[in-house]
Design brief:
single chain; L-fuculose-1-phosphate Aldolase; seven-stranded antiparallel sheet; 8 helices; 38% helix
Length: 233
Amino acid sequence: MLLPTLREQVLEANLELSRRGLALFTFGNASGIDRASGLVAIKPSGVPYDRMRPEDLPLVDLQGKTVEGTLRPSSDLDTHLALYRASEHIGGVVHTHSRAAASWAQARRPIPCYGTTHADYFRGEIPVTRELTDDEVREEEAATGSAILLALAGRDPLEMPAALVAGHAPFTWGRDAAEAAHHAVLLEEVAALALATVSVNPNAVPISRALMDRHFLRKHGPGAFYGQPGKKL
């Protein structure tokens, strides 16, 4: 079996989505890439999480050709590949239909940065894509990838590791599959907080740029000072 460690990591990321209640039945998928070989391991399409083994995860190249595996890759493969091709810093991608985040996506609304919980992980408003045209829907997964990249134009994907696909649901990403799954969990919490915020105060406004940057940069970047040096606790 090629790339057993990558497959184990991607399997664990998929199981995390199920454990956290972000993926019902066979909804959602996680993938990871080995940059040295250019190969991607991804959840097989329609396979229940509790039945998956590392060897069940197909390996594909960046053009979507299966290199190893007998099961069909996730139907969202082309969206994952678009993100990997766009940024070498992306090492893992996750797609869920988690309730709160999908609600914002279905409403075609970005998630404003209403508070510091949001700012700790997402530097600014979480974008929503434009809607796909009828012609684009025929190649929906590839067009979705292009729409996400357009929504992220000019932004660092590691500072904004999430996007909402209009009428659909969220995608998140990170340096590896585990971080992408972590961001999916955080996105759902932020989305739920935002829904609660506007229910309490429909006129709520985002926090200031200064406060947002303070909270994001204390955890990320060369000047980060949150937590313990060199340790993940």
